[in-house]
Write a structure and sequence with these properties.
four-stranded parallel beta sheet, single chain, Rossmann fold
């Protein structure tokens, strides 16, 4: 079975055939660096990472670009609130994003272009769009894309422009807006006093770019005029990705993206994540609650990326426990150099992942493998490491913990107390072990100690 992916543009499951044999150009909409990304944002980045990992696993050479939006309405607004320059403000949150990326074991992109470094490219594209009649200059000097000049406008988000003629006659200067406000969108925003010291002097006049033109400039510059796959969350479909298509194809006259892929919303207790509702979680919030970043990664893989998923802390804690079980099962396998990947399991794994990245079934296969007594420990270990190239749980990097001698002595004393049925002393010793940063679990194979 060949790899099949769901294309948002056609609404169909399609066989993946890259533009160039054996190589894939992949663009991921990255963070707007005005705050810590919330864990809903990270669903998009982990989905993109899983896709990239599987493409590499299948032998493709992946050229991956993820942009950094360091100039838009929100970065200007919040940098001013903090009394910082735009660069100082956005650099901080860019670095915090990189820290989160590493904790989630997301493979770094080949390049992280920043919008502020691509102003010249944006101006060039905008000037060409004006020349071709797709864009026009308004009375205040701003430049807008005329959506009526692009017949395919609305095909990604499935908007019927013929029913929106009245609305489409207006202009939308804000970066973000809803479908009921479909209008010509800003490519270049003439300087406004509210922008403070954030502006560029260009052939278009004094001002700054609109949000949507940024990704077009960065993708074309780094990946060329046509790319294989563009990913993002469903919240990016409109207006951002819809506008990307219009301005990119209006500029080049070529199909911009072959496969559009989007992950679904992440809800929290049945509601959209929001600071005002108090259900807004960052990765740091999860860590404070004792949930590991990779526990969150595993939890996401228990649902298909196109499934609307509801999060609560209890389910995340359960996933974290499952990850610990996975680690223990792996560490219990003796290290061996003669292990080989079990091909029956590998065929099934690839079959599941070829079905539009069916991670729930692929993950269930790992637990089946762990319990399979017909597979030798060496082959089981090799197979788990092979699959983890896609899952990204870091199995190959796991090392047996060196338990401090003080903790080991307490564990032995506690085991003796338990054998003597001195349960009170057993509890006291367990508490002492906890204060040293370790926990002890009683299993059928004796006491197991691990770092808290």
């Amino acid at each position: 079975m060949s790899l099949k992916l769901h294309n948002t543009y056609t609404k169909n499951l399609e066989e993946f055939i890259p533009i160039k044999k054996d190589s894939v150009s992949l663009y991921t909409c990255g963070p707007t660096v005005y705050d810590y990304p919330h864990i809903g944002n990270y669903r998009a980045y982990i989905f993109g990472d899983t896709l990239k990992r599987f493409l590499s696993y299948q032998g493709y050479q992946v050229n991956h670009i993820m942009n950094i939006t360091d100039i838009d309405d929100k970065t200007i607004r919040d940098s001013q609130k903090k009394g910082q320059s735009l660069r100082e403000f956005t650099e901080f949150y860019t670095n915090e994003f990189y820290k989160d990326r590493d904790m989630l074991n997301i493979i770094p992109a080949d390049c992280y272009p920043k919008a502020t470094d691509y102003i010249d490219e944006m101006v060039k594209i905008i000037e060409k769009l004006i020349e071709k009649g797709h864009a026009y200059v308004s009375t205040d000097g701003s430049v807008y894309f005329n959506i009526t000049t692009f017949p395919d406008y609305g095909k990604l988000s499935h908007i019927d422009l013929s029913e929106l003629k009245d609305n489409a006659k207006g202009r939308m200067k804000s970066d973000e807006y809803e479908k009921d406000s479909v209008q010509d969108f800003a490519l270049w925003k003439a300087y406004d006093e509210s922008d403070g010291d954030v502006f560029w002097e260009t052939s278009l006049g004094k001002g700054r770019p609109g949000w949507h033109i940024e990704c077009t400039a960065m993708s074309i510059k780094n990946l060329g005029e046509q790319i294989d796959i563009h990913t993002g969350g469903v919240d990016n479909i409109f207006p951002h990705h819809e506008n990307e298509i219009a301005q990119s194809e209006g500029y080049t006259g070529k199909q911009f993206v072959k496969y559009w892929m989007h992950n679904e919303w992440l809800l929290v207790n049945g509601k959209k994540m929001s600071k005002s509702l108090g259900n807004f979680y960052t990765l740091r919030d999860l860590i404070d609650k004792g949930i590991s970043p990779l526990g969150y990664r595993l939890w996401l893989m228990t649902s298909h990326y196109r499934t609307l998923t509801n999060l609560n802390i209890e389910t995340l804690q359960g996933a974290d426990t499952a990850l610990s079980r996975l680690y223990e099962a792996f560490k219990a396998l003796p290290e061996a150099t003669d292990g080989t990947v079990d091909m029956d399991y590998k065929v099934r794994f690839v079959e599941y992942m070829n079905d539009d990245l069916n991670t729930p079934q692929a993950l269930a296969l790992v637990w089946e493998l762990i319990k399979d007594t017909t597979i030798s420990p060496a082959n089981k270990r090799a197979t788990m490491i092979d699959f983890d190239q896609v899952f990204g749980f870091g199995l190959a990097d796991l090392k047996e913990e060196v338990i401090p001698e003080e903790v080991t002595k307490l564990v032995v004393e506690r085991e003796n107390a338990r054998q003597n049925k001195d349960w009170a002393m057993s509890d006291i010793l367990r508490a002492k072990i906890n204060t040293l940063g370790y926990e002890v679990k009683d299993t059928g194979e004796g006491s197991k100690v691990s770092k808290i």
